[in-house]
Amino acid sequence: RVDHERIQAVGPDRAASEWLLRCGALVRYQGYEKWQQDYNGLPTGPLGKYRIEAINATDSCIMYRGFDYLDGLEHVTEITLQKCIYIQDECLQRLSETKNLQKSLLQLKIISCGNVTDKGIIALHKLTNLEYLYLSDLPGIKQKETTVQILQQALPNLELELDLE
């Protein structure tokens, strides 16, 4: 469950980092090239110094319940969801309704997430600044052409790369 007091105490980026790393995801901070993967090695410093710029949730156990941690993140430009068994349509809907992510998110990759269907992909149309979307190995997508058409109508500037068979 989400610890809202912790978010208040340490700020949204630190609290989200803690949640993501505990779930097995990686984070990269603005101005840094190295991915942070060690929970115990989380950088300390003044509140707001380390801002999450990228999230790589490959093989992680992130799930809907923790998505409140993403609300306060203002600098996330890329997210990779790969082999996330708990990611389903509701997660993608929640992601696309997150106001800060609607502004900041530029790249999204969804790969081998078996519980994602057309409904979840279509929900991404609210990510109005999204420039690049990569979809691969998503057996839950049954209406590929329709889904792609809806997304491209809603997001005409989106570069959509598909590897769905």
Characterization of the model:
- InterPro entries: LRR_dom_sf (IPR032675).
- This is ATP5S synthase.
- It comes from Columbina picui.
- The chain has 6 helices and 7 strands, in the order ααββββααβαβαβ.
- It has 165 residues and is an alpha/beta fold.
- The protein has a single domain, classed as Leucine-rich repeat, LRR (right-handed beta-alpha superhelix) (Alpha-Beta Horseshoe), CATH 3.80.10.10.
- Strands 2-1-3-4-5-6-7 form a 7-stranded mixed β-sheet, with helices on one face.
- The mean pLDDT is 96.
β-sheet strand percentage: 15-25%
Helical coverage, percent range: 25-40%
Strand line-up across the major sheet: 2-1-3-4-5-6-7
Instruction: Please give the CATH class.
Output: Alpha Beta
Overall 3D shape: globular
CATH fold-level name: Leucine-rich repeat, LRR (right-handed beta-alpha superhelix)
Descriptive key words:
165 residues, alpha/beta, Leucine-rich repeat, LRR (right-handed beta-alpha superhelix), 6 helices, 19% strand, globular, LRR_dom_sf
